[in-house]
Amino acid sequence: MALWKMESINPSLKLAMDIAKVFYATVEELFEFTDNE
């Protein structure tokens, strides 16, 4: 991911990405996303 894009990422998404990196997994493998509409 480009460094200039990191500024626009939600802090909780950054945390999820960091956690995924620690476990050598993707964010999608670790977390379930649902549409809240």
UniProtKB/TrEMBL annotation:
<dbReference type="GO" id="GO:0003677">
    <property type="term" value="F:DNA binding"/>
</dbReference>
<dbReference type="InterPro" id="IPR010982">
    <property type="entry name" value="Lambda_DNA-bd_dom_sf"/>
</dbReference>
<protein>
    <submittedName>
        <fullName>Uncharacterized protein</fullName>
    </submittedName>
</protein>
